[in-house]
Amino acid sequence: MPELAYETLRSALAAQPLFEAKTWRLSPAAWPLSREQVEELEAIGAACLEFHLALENLYLRSAAGKNLLRNKPLLAPWVADYFDRGKPSWLVERARDPRNRGIFPPALRPDLLFTDDGFAMTELDSLPGGIGLTAFLNRLYAAEGGRILGAEDAMLLNFHASLVALKPGGGNPLIALVVSEEAGTYRPEMQWLARELQARGRRVFCLRPDEIFPLGGAVYFDAEGNPEKIDIIYRFFELFDLANIPAADFILDAWAAGEVAVGPPIRHFQEEKLALALFQHHRLQDYWSEALSARTAKRLRALIPPSWIVDPTPLPPGAVLDGPRIGGRALVDWRDLGGASQKERDLIIKISGFHETAWGARSVLLGSDSSREEWTEGVNRAVEMAPTHPHILQTYQKPRRLEHPVYRPDSPGEDAAAVVEAQGRVRLCPYYFVVDGQARLSGALATFCPPDKKIIHGMQDAALLPCRVVD
């Protein structure tokens, strides 16, 4: 197994920080994936893109009051209502604009957990961080030999190709990677991406929003004293953050005039976690069976854990909620979740989107890892925020315990370069870039956390690793 020396790793990351004020554990080896697992990841990417195609159709037909099925009636105006809750009218109008039809996020990244039953997909991110980090780690670990997933520079080249595809026409368009202050933690990796693509002759620049200005109906930035027209914007900021972007109106006007392409597109329904809960919704099963291929529908049903939208709309007498059972009884009010035992609280509540806590696991609450008071407070908060910020409830998928070598953490009197075989749990984030109507698997980032961590995300005591293919 190829191994990367501790000093090589430490020096490379010190010379090129990828996240602002972030550190993590180091490992001598990339995370191993079998050829069968890689084939499954490729199939998952195709399924995620097909899901987005069907999701667009579902939202637009719901919003227009059109029938969802070919040969029998199914109207679901409540689908658009869920997505549109709390969104400003101008955002809803942009999402429904015919000029956005068929425009999908250039990058897709599902969050996959290794469980005893295979992969479980807890989220599908259409504005993922970690692209630059994974590309950097791919190159770093590839230098030591072994087959890195996606090859050394697949992340870079496919990311660029997915952005160019937003505005067909050939040539070498000028692309701005626009990172807001809210997302500033990720600016270093976007700056690295821009520099690396510039070294390959691509016109890619990482900009702050206040560096963009309007000129003649288009948007420009100052390139060493000369105004340069921007052809494509990769917006690395959430839609709720648009209100804090000084150039937002300029960008939207230039997009409406056809002067600039924006990706991910200004379409809120492509960025809401409740999309996974809608896939599970009992009233939409006929739609998904018709809109998706049988293979994709089967794969997604195996991947997506049971999920529900927390909707406190009063029920008629005798009706019950489609949700988990508490104390052997069906729910009649979402607040009944507050009375769940610790075993029954193997459930996660998280906000769907369009909120400052909707990214980075900041809104995630695991019931079995919380006190009854914390859990009840979280349930009540989800119910109270439902009219403007829907939450979803999801069954907790427990990751398997796995082993991987890591370097010993720096401690006084200990050799940090010593390798220990550690136990932990893994979240796998494969990156797909949409090019020519295909989701290209270009790399994957494994987050290896200590086994006592219930929610897996980037943290100081986790290891962040690229993936290699093993026989």
Helix content: 25-40%
How many β-strand runs? 19
Rounded to the nearest angstrom, the radius of gyration is: 23 Å
Q: What characterizes the major β-sheet? A: 8 strands, mixed
Question: What class, by secondary structure content?
Answer: alpha+beta
Q: Could you name the ranges where pLDDT drops below 50 across 5 or more consecutive residues? A: none
Mean pLDDT over the full residue set: 93
Calculate the terminal CA-CA distance, rounded to whole Å.
12 Å
Task: Tell me what portion of residues adopts beta-strand conformation.
Answer: 15-25%
Put simply, the count of helices is 12
Which term fits the overall shape?
A: globular
Gist of the model:
The protein is α+β, with helices and mostly antiparallel strands and about 475 residues long. The protein has helices spanning about 5-15, 35-65, 75-85, 90-95, 130-140, 155-165, 185-200, 250-255, 275-280, 285-290, 295-305, 370-385, and strands at about 30-35, 105-115, 120-125, 145-150, 175-180, 205, 210-215, 220-225, 225-230, 230-235, 260-265, 305-310, 345-350, 365, 390-395, 400-405, 420-435, 440-450, 465-470. Strand 17 and strand 18 (about 440-450) form a beta hairpin.
